[in-house]
Amino acid sequence: MKAQLTKSSTIEQWTYWTEMNSIKLFQNLEGEIRFGPGYFSVKSEPLLHDFDGKTFGDWFFHYKDGIFLQQWDSTKSPHSSLLYFDTVGLTIIELKTQIPSVIWEMEVLEENQLQLNCDTGYKILELRIELGIELGTSD
Description:
Blueprint: E1 15-20, E2 23-32, E3 38-45, E4 55-63, E5 66-72, E6 80-86, E7 91-99, E8 103-110, E9 113-119, E10 124-130
Antiparallel strand pairs: 1-2, 2-3, 4-5, 5-6, 6-7, 8-9, 9-10
C-alpha cells in the first residue's frame, strides 16, 4: 500500500475577540514569540479596512466609546504602538509609537486621564494618556 502526502493548506481560523457599540472584532493567530505571547490579524464586523495588513497583540482595553489596542511594530523585537479605536466614528487614532514592551496594563486615573503601564522585563514604563474631547491628544 502506498501513502500519498498532500500539501496542507492553511485555513484561517477567526475567533471572536471583543465587541463595543455593535462593532465586533475577530482575531486570527499569526504566530507566537517563543515562550512569549501570540500575535494576531484583526478584522471587524462590519468590515473596516483599517485593520488590514497590521499585526496586533492580544491586549485591549475598553474605555468610553472606544477600544485601546496594541499594534505590533515588529515580531522580532518588543516594539508596539498604542491605538484607540473609536467605535462610534469608526476611526483609529495612533496615540503612541515605539513602546518597547508588549506586556501592558491600563489604569484609569481620573476622567479622560489614563496610565499605560508597560513591563519591559527590566522596568515598568508609566505612560500618561490624556484624552481630549476629540480623543486625539496624548502625552
